[in-house]
Amino acid sequence: MFTVFGNHTELVSWTAEPQRRGSFGILSSCLVTIFLCLWTALHLNIPHYSDATHPWYIKRQMWRKLGWLTLGLLAPEMIVYAAWDQWRKAKKLKKAMHDEEGHKDWSMVHAFYAVMGGFVVDSNEESPLYPECAQRKRITLSPTGVQYIAEHHSHLLPHVEEAEVRDKSKANALAKFLVCIQAGWFVLQCISRMVLSLPITLLEVRWIQQ
Prior knowledge:
- By secondary structure, this protein is mainly alpha-helical.
- The protein has a domain at 80-170.
- The chain has eight helices and two strands, in the order H-H-H-H-E-E-H-H-H-H.
- The protein has a two-stranded antiparallel sheet with strand order 1-2.
- Mean pLDDT is 76; it is low at 1-6.
């Protein structure tokens, strides 16, 4: 009788290779595929400007990336929510900028760039609302801050071409293509085992669900 995930019910411990499908092969293929998919899917906000002067092991961006990777492994729905939240903020900012004179050419690319922290201001003065910023020379503008400057000091907001923003993107098309091949191979392997009524491990089922 055909069963979706096979009919093997025997509990086994660590299985060596290469005589049979071993535990190391299953673990390595699942973990590598999950890691590569998460790594290429995550697009973090623009790193803090001070990261350029720090060695790699104390860069904030690296530790933030590792933190988001861990969250993606444990709770992938939180990654989806964060992406949706940024899309919502970008859409709201785009609509607000279209209501301002001189910024009607703003697209979702501009809005996402602003949401990701692409606009900053340099200031050495103490703010009455944010005294902790007295020693900061560069402050990243939030979407609300960008909208405020557009409304009250429009001339201070630089005009950025959409092509310039896209040029700063570090998305690697080749890396994404290779990850798609790896993920496709993994899925085809699972489908072939389902067709043959061979067992699929819970780790593989978990990856498919993600």
